[in-house]
Amino acid sequence: MFGYFQLSPDKLGFYVVDVAGHGVHAALLSVAIGHLVTSQYFASQVVSASDAVDPAAMARDLNERFYRDDGTDYFTMFCGVLDRTSERLFFCQAGYPSPILAREDGTTEIVGDGGFPVGLLNPAEFETEVVALSAGDALILCSDGAIEAETPDGIAFGEDRLRGLVASHSHKDVESLPNAIMSALSQWRGGQPLEDDLTVLALARSPAA
Amino acid sequence: MIYSQVRTNGICVIRPEGDRLTALGANDFRREASQLVDEGNNRIIIDLSDVRFVDSSGLGAIVGLLKKVGNRGEVVVCGLSDAVRQMFRVTRMEKVFQIFPNPDAATAALDG
Question: Start and end of every PPM-type phosphatase domain (chain A) (predicted)?
Answer without folding.
Answer: 2-205
